[in-house]
Amino acid sequence: MNIKEIIESLLLVANKPVSPSELADILKTDETNALEALNGLIEDYKNRGINIIQHDSKYEMITSPSNAKFVSLFLNEETRKDLNQGALETLAIVIYKQPVTKSEIENIRGVNCDYAVRSLLIRGIIEEKGRKESLGKPILYGTNSNLLKHFGIKSLDELPKTEDKND
After folding, report:
1. Domains held by the chain: number
2. Which of 61, 49, 79, 51 is nearest to 23 (CA)?
3. Are 44 and 92 members of one domain?
4. Are 126 and 117 spatial neighbours (Cβ–Cβ below 8 Å)?
């Protein structure tokens, strides 16, 4: 088991800063080993496009501040692009099933939805609505008023009803 590699993966997918104790719990190791791996990763990422920062005794991956101008331009371009088919399918699921977790969306679509959810979050047409009271406390996603503006509707009631008997 390569602790450093696993921590790198966990930091990449984490949606919030992570403490060494959380990492140690997941890896079934002690906090000293987790901190040692984190410090190694911080060193590895120096002078790269991604950095690992520490604040309030927690760690997270961020884009390098020196690239902020380019990241901002890219994200602005991302918000101007049309929604692709995957994002539209993901959005439909969020609209009709909200609040819904990413794994619930993936179960319905049958494919990974990380990019689609990210795209919808960047555009501001879905948002985090809290945490589900289940194992891991996954994020719940739902729509907001920006969705209505984006599609030029006054209410979600204007959308077609689904035939799903579970709604």
Report:
1. 2
2. 61
3. no
4. yes
- 107 with 148, same domain? yes
Identify the domain containing residue 51 by its residue range: 3-66
Tokens 């969705």, residue?
147
The pLDDT profile of the chain, 167 residues, written as one tens digit per residue, is: 899 999 999 999 887 889 999 999 999 999 999 999 999 999 999 999 999 988 888 999 988 888 888 887 776 665 556 788 999 999 999 999 999 999 999 999 999 999 999 989 988 889 999 999 999 899 999 998 878 776 767 778 888 887 764 54
